[in-house]
Every structure is written in C-alpha cells, then in structure tokens.
Input
Amino acid sequence: MNQRTIQVDALESEAIYIFREVVAQFEKPVLLFSGGKDSITLVRLAQKAFFPAKIPFPLMHIDTGHNFPETIEFRDRLAKELGVKLIVRNVQDNIDSGRVKEETGRYASRNMLQTETLLDAIEEFGFDACIGGARRDEEKARAKERIFSVRDDFGQWDEKNQRPEVFDMLNGKIDLGQNVRVFPISNWTELDVWSYIEQENIEIPSIYFAHTRKTFVRDGMIWSADDAVVYRDEEEKVEERMVRFRTVGDMSCTAAVLSEAVDIAKVVEEIRDSSISERGARIDDKRSEAAMEKRKQQGYF
Amino acid sequence: MKVLKIATAGSVDDGKSTLIGRILYDTKSLTDDKLEAIEEKSRQRGFDYLDFSLATDGLVAEREQGITIDVAHIYFSTRKKSFIIADTPGHIEYTRNMVTGASTAQASIVLIDARNGVVEQTYRHFFINNLLRIKDVVIAINKMDLVDFSEEKYNQIKGEIEYLASKSEYKNQNLTFIPLSALQGDNVVNKSENTPWYNGETLMHHLERLDADDINEVSQVRFPVQTVIRPKTDEYHDFRGYAGKIYGGDFEIGDEVAVLPSQTKSKIKSIHFFDKEFAKAKNGSSVTITLEDNVNVSRGDMLVKVAEEPTITKELNATICWMDKEPLQASQKYYIKHGVNDAQAKITQLSSIIKTDFSGKTDNPSELELNQIGDIQLKLSKPLSVDAFNKNKSNGSFILINPKTNNTVGVGFIR
Output
C-alpha cells in the first residue's frame, strides 16, 4: 500500500470530473481522436477517470486522407493497446460520392471537408456527446466555448446564445438529434499539455520531435515536401531542414517549425520560450479573422 | 505553480477587454503573430492606438459592435503566477454570462469609468460579486487620463463603493481601489507617474500577491458520487468503486462515513487514483473510493464524514439569479441540478426581488425577469443533501433547467 497523499493537480481533476459527467449523463459518447497531442492527453485522462474499468466509449477519427503516416500508425497501435474500439470515417468517401468538393490550387486543404464527414458519422452512430481536445487558449473563438457546448441537429454552434455554465455544474440535457461537444481540457494551455505529457511519460507520434525533412517555404511558413498532397509550385525550392510539428492537422494546412527539440524536455523548453502562438502555423486559421468561428458554426470542432 | 482565476466586470465601454489586452501586452504575453494581427487590424480601422479588445473579443458580432457578448477565457503567466481571466460582458442583456464567468473566480475586477462614476451596472456587478462570495475584489477606476488623473474624482468613487460595501451582509470581502488607464497603461503593470498621490500597488502587482486558495473558504468534506465503477474483469471481479471529486476537506482510509440520503454508515476501505492506491485524498481530487460494507450507493448519493452531515431536505430557501428571457413565475416546475444530482423542483413561492443597490426588496412580485435576483422557496421531488452557500459553495448552489427547452435558466444560492 502506498501511504502517499493524493492531491491531484486541479486541471487533471477537473478533466476527470468532466469525463465522468459525460458517461453519467449521455447514452452514446465518443472521443474524437486525431492522433494529436491533445487527443492523446484526453485518452490518458479517460483511462484515469474509469480505471480499473476500461474506457467506456469508442474513439473516432475523421481521416482526411491527408494525415501524416506516423500519426495513423500511432492511432491504430494505441487503440489496440487500450482494447478500445476505433471508428474511422474517411473524407475521401464523401469526395468520391460527390457530397463534398475538394479544393484545388496552392492553398487547397481538406480541413473544411471534415465537418461533413463528422456530422454524417455522428448521425450514423447516434452519438449524443462528442469529446474533443480543443482548448480555450488556442484561438479567440475557442476562448468563448463552454465545456458542454450544445449543437443543434445541423451540428451548428449558436455562439451568441450559449447556456450559462456556473460553478462546475454541467447541464447535458438535450433534445433528440442534438449533440453536445465536450471539452475536458478547455482550461489547459499548450504548455500544460506538454508538461503533462512529460510528467506522465506519454508516448506521442514522432513528428512532434525535431527531425530532418524535405521542406519548402511559402508565405514565411515551412511546408513538408515529402508528401504529394501538399501543393507546390515548381519554383518553390525543396531543402532539407531540421523541423518538428507543433500541431497535427491535415498535412495540407499544417506547417512545420524549425526546431532542435529532439525529446519531450526540449519541446517543453521550446514552447515556454516561443514567441509564436500554436496556431500561428495553421493556414486554416489565417483564411479570415473569423475562420474558426465560421467553421464552428457549421459543425466543425 | 498556482493558478489564480479572475473575473472582470464593468459597464459597456468601461474598457474591460482593453484592460486585459493591456495586461497581456505589458506582461509580454501576446505572441508575435497575435500582436501583428492586432496592429494590422487597428491600422485597417484607422485607429492611432492599438485596439487591445481585438485580442479578446473572439466573435464576429463582438468585433462588429465593439462589445463583449460572451465570456472569453484568457490564459497567461508571469514569473510569479499563472492566471485565467474570464473577460465577461458588461451589457445588462448579458449579465448571465457575467455570472458564468464569475462563478469559478477567486478574485474579481470591477471596472468603473472615472468620468461616469458608479452607475446602475456597477451596483449589479458589485452585488453579484457579493452574492457569489468572491473574497478579493479590485475596484479599477479606469480612464483616469480622461479626468486629468484627479485624486478628488478617485476619492469620490471610492467613497461611494465603500458606502455600498457597508450595506452588504458579506463582511469578509477585501476591497482594493486602483486608479488606472487601461488604454495608456497607467498602474496596470507599470506604476504611473500621473498619479503621484496614489501610494498603492499596480493592478498586476496586486494580483500576483493574492492567494490562490480554493473557492470554498471553510467547510466540511463532501463527496458527491458521479458514477459507480464496476470493471467485472477477472482481475477486478468484485471491485465496486465510487468515482467523484472531493469538495471542502480530506478523506482517509478508515474514516467513518455516512451515505446520503439513506444515512447508511460504513468506513472507507481504499482510495484509488488510476493504478495507485493512497492513504489520504485531499480537497479537489477526483478519486475513486471503496467502502468496507456492501452498501447501496449510486450516482447522486453523497459520502460525508459521520457527524458532519449536511441538511437533508425536500424544501429549499434560496436566492436566485434568473438567466432566461421567459420570466420565473411561482408554481412553475423545473429540473434542479444540485452538483451531480438531479430532481424536479416546483417554485412554491417567489418572496421578493432584491434591489442590487442594497436598498431593499420588493415583496411578493408576480414574476422574476431576466437578470433579476430574488428570493424563492422550492419543493423537491426527492431529498437533496445541501449546505448553505456561505458554508460550502459547491454544495450550496444549484441550477434550474427549463424542462421544455433544456436551457439553464437560473442559478440558486441556498440560504
């Protein structure tokens, strides 16, 4: 018997509390899993919330088809180790059937197309709570998000008419067809997530660590040239650079950063000293002042 | 590092978002890309200053109208402390969002426009801070640059707030007055040369010094059970753990506990957190507890120490802040959510509307409108285990949910 006293860090305790509320209040929850650091952190928190029982809901990945291969390999292995069901739905299927149209040109991205596939999957399985790793510190529209965020049956976020959320009482009552997006790590910062991954010794995909990669520069950002899905003009010169990725989105909209951080301690140090925000390397947020808000209104995360 | 949660309050155009932007700027918490975006947008709009509210007003409608509609949560750290600021709206229409932001705050900043002094919204914000029992309240007298940094003006506003405070029944509140200009940065992070008559600290210095204690001041331990964990695997065939978060005190193995509302007695057998066991668990920890006896415990039940039991009741007296467009009327039915527990509730009496300038009550009103605060009595469909709000914030508060819309329509404080 361990005689230590447990005083769990406030952020961890809050997240675990939220997970338990989801399982108690909803019939069919799902954890939206992208293979990125935030959703990997969610998986660890879910394990802690229900141990020694298994995680009592499946993981679901909306695969754009343009994900980093390292992430996909990691995703499949993690689900197998946990013994948790993994649902994958592919954006490619909707493109093939003509339900959505793929963008073309130098800024083409499948990021926006995920929403349609996500909403289809929520309907297909009847999920009433979708747990995600969004954090309020990421972006100014996300800073407005509730922990239990109600979406209507079109998946829409009514940002001007959100439910009051007082103390830690979470109101999960919804009508049939609605769903709730749940954000257990709302109050974590990027540095909190990295510190937690370090403290808990959690495995993450290799693209988060500095590695040599064929890259090119456009609009001041570094793009991966290894991957055919990233559009590149002929005059955009390919060079090898030591880089890592700070977020793991669709390859077509996630830029790399120059980095020497080859292990988790160095990543934490680098984030602490960084003068650029995490989403500064995401072209999907730069489309307009309200890019994230508009996507969220339509059912995006 | 400890985190201090702060809420801001103030009327429209008192400069809350600007103040937060200024804090972020002066503490060098804005990253280069965010600062560039603010510079660019400010230029586009033809301002000759940086419009810091662009850092926090995250919704299109907010930027269009230049007002804050909903709470934004802002995160930053100095070398001494980490902060979460809930930037809450000032407009009367969005008071409920102010309550949302302030409910989890340990400290609050009430902004006052030095030109206008104390206005109706100031009363309301001051009152809500008192209702929520927020211990540390900073009265930030802003826009001092527009009143020539007048000491007389500052003292006049200070006097009015002190008079208000003298009428409040919450006496443990610490009030701090700071004259500042959010736009120009006087006394926000850096001490101003324009207020030689002011001997106090800058706002940031003051916030860095505040203790980040739990929002519960003093109370007895409460453990509302969220869910029962029964793995039914070979290894844990007979495991039956009660998962929840500890509020207000500590639990250790061997503690004699009562299961409420049945009042069955047992002892704590083990305390689990993930794959480890612990002898003791502290206030605020989300743990899993097992008991020595095979008693019946389900979601919504509460474990407490024997002889420290709360009131078990089917009737409540409470002060309520109404947050819905459809007014509250006596005899209506709602769901009540008390912590993780649910019941049905009928409003048996709407006794009064409380005036937020502490000037008294209106008795026996017919209804309570959006953003009004009143005293009510409730009858419950099943007994709840409750404390008074001033004894235990988490076990002394509840929300009401409209069964037709599922919306959270009111927040209650048990008396």
Chain A touches chain B through 59 residues (CB under 8 Å). Chain A has eight helices and eleven strands.
